[in-house]
């Protein structure tokens, strides 16, 4: 009965377009050869979910950089990672057990996607105006 209630709750999530800022990364910290990729991190015992950010290097000699960011409204409901924006919930990933040790992982659905955009901001420090470039990672729903 409990699984039926959870299944009905997941089906009843309203689909709407929304967006949540995950992180802003200064372009000076990220070389142009990098690719910014978002995924989901989970802790099912605490009912928590967050964004795992990977800065992938195209350079053979460099290693990837990994970041974790809390996302407002992202949590675990039942067996899913859910994003709540203004009371509207969207299932972003399903939690599955994989491998011989039955490790829990979050498999993304097509309801949410990580989007990277470039941003330029004019900063006036009192002496001069300079342009600061950054990359903004957002989590968008359909």
Give the helices and strands, then pairings.
Blueprint: H1 2-11, E1 18-26, E2 35-43, E3 48-56, E4 65-69, E5 74-77, E6 80-85, E7 88-98, E8 103-108, E9 112-124, E10 129-141
Antiparallel strand pairs: 1-10, 2-3, 3-4, 5-6, 6-7, 7-8, 9-10
Q: Would you write up a description of this structure?
A:
The longest helix is centred in the first third of the chain and has 10 residues. The strands form 3 sheets. This protein has a 4-stranded antiparallel sheet, with no helix packed on it. Strand 9 and strand 10 form a beta hairpin. The two termini are 30 Å apart. Helix content is 7%, strand content 60%. The N terminus is likely disordered. The protein contains 1 helix and 10 strands, in the order αββββββββββ. The protein has 142 residues and is mostly beta strands.
Q: How much of the sequence is in beta strands?
A: over 45%
| Euclidean distance between termini CA atoms | 30 Å
Spatial shape: globular
| Overall SS class | mainly beta
Radius of gyration: 18 Å
How many β-strand runs? 10
Give unreliable regions as ranges. Answer: 1-15
H-E order: HEEEEEEEEEE
In percent, how helical is the residue content? under 10%
For the sheet with most strands, the description reads: 4 strands, antiparallel
The average pLDDT is 85
Number of helices: 1
């Amino acid at each position: 009965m409990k699984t039926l209630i959870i299944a009905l709750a997941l089906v009843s999530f309203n689909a709407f377009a929304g967006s949540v800022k995950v992180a802003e990364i200064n372009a000076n910290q990220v070389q142009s050869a990098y690719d910014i990729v978002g995924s989901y991190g989970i802790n099912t015992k605490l009912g928590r979910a967050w964004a795992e950010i990977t800065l992938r290097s195209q350079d053979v000699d460099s290693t990837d950089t990994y970041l974790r960011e809390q996302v407002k409204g992202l949590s675990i409901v039942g067996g899913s990672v859910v994003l709540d924006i203004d009371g509207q919930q969207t299932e972003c990933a399903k939690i599955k057990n994989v491998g011989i040790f039955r490790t829990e992982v979050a498999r993304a659905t097509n309801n949410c996607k990580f989007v990277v955009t470039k941003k330029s901001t004019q900063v006036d420090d009192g002496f001069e105006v300079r342009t600061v470039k950054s990359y903004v990672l957002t989590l968008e729903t359909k």
